Amino acid sequence: MEKTFVIVKPDGVQRGLIGEVIARLERRGLRLIGAKFMQVSLELAETHYGIHKGKPFYAGLIQYITSAPVMAMVWEGPNAVAAVRQTMGATRPTEAAPGSIRHDFGLEVGRNITHASDSPENGEAETALWFKPEELVSWERAVDTWIFE
Ligand code: IDP
Ligand code: MG
Q1: pTM for the whole structure
Q2: Catalytic: 48?
Q3: Residue 28 CB contacts under 8 Å (≥ 6 apart), including other chains
Q4: Measured from the CB, is residue 86 less than 6 Å from ligand 1?
Q5: In this structure, is residue 148 part of a structural domain?
């Protein structure tokens, strides 16, 4: 089953949107397999966002993600990566589709509420970076057969 790694970023937590994000992913049919509420260390932030090192927004991004607690999660399902990116909306809230989280709750790219993996490979890699294997729960829902074809 495809996995994707999701963060409710500090602005989402401060604004009371953890439940809203979880509710939308549950309603979509995705299955939660790991979650932790945590303060992100500088080291973890720099590894997670290593690909953006050197970009003009990098320092602000590291400051943002380490500024207050986050809700880190792993969700799985068929096409989980694409489904979650769609539910989150485009990186810039003013370009995000109406009805997406970033559209419905955001205005600025540097306060865009969530992170979600951008490929199945990164879904695996980010899950391994943020979670120990024993922190993930493998389970089946009675309703899975009505959501997963
Ligand atoms: P993504 O989160 O939609 O995958 P990325 O391009 O991977 O977008 O950028 C990672 C994060 O860096 C964004 O979610 C956003 O928080 C921040 N970011 C990206 N571009 C900018 C920018 O131009 N200004 C400020 N922050 C940015
Ligand atoms: Mg990205």
Answers
A1: 0.98
A2: no
A3: 77, 83, 84, 87
A4: no
A5: no
